[in-house]
Specification:
Radius of gyration: 16 Å
Strand content: 5-15%
Largest sheet: 2 strands, antiparallel
Structural class: mainly alpha
Shape: globular
Strand order of the largest sheet: 1-2
């Protein structure tokens, strides 16, 4: 298995998968097998659309919307319940996954 190195401009999916596994294992050690979202006291959050987040030439203030952790959780549950041959809308599912991961990051950063 090729291993990428610091400064390497290539993202190896095996490396990304391993990093995700390491981080999710750490989350599980801290929070257990299930996270009760109510205990984290987070739900609504500011959301910046992808195009605006990567547009460093324009002020993103007019593009800010609202996301919701409970909606992200519902969408991830729906993804997992789909038939294997149902199409995955990658950008959409990743956005919901990011919402959940950011909520976990906030909980950890604030000592919850």
């Amino acid at each position: 298995m090729p291993v990428t190195h610091m400064g390497d401009p290539v993202l190896g999916l095996a490396d990304l998968r391993e990093a995700c596994a390491l981080l999710l294992d750490a989350v599980e050690r801290k929070y257990g097998e299930h996270i009760e979202w109510e205990s984290l006291a987070v739900d609504h959050y500011w959301d910046l659309p992808l195009a605006a987040a990567f547009d460093m030439w324009n002020d993103p203030a007019t593009k800010i919307g609202v996301g919701q952790v409970s909606d992200d959780l519902d969408e991830i549950h729906a993804l997992l319940a789909r038939a294997p041959d149902d199409p995955v809308i990658l950008w959409h599912e990743l956005a919901h996954l990011c919402g959940l991961l950011r909520a976990i990051a906030l909980a950890d950063a604030s000592g919850r």
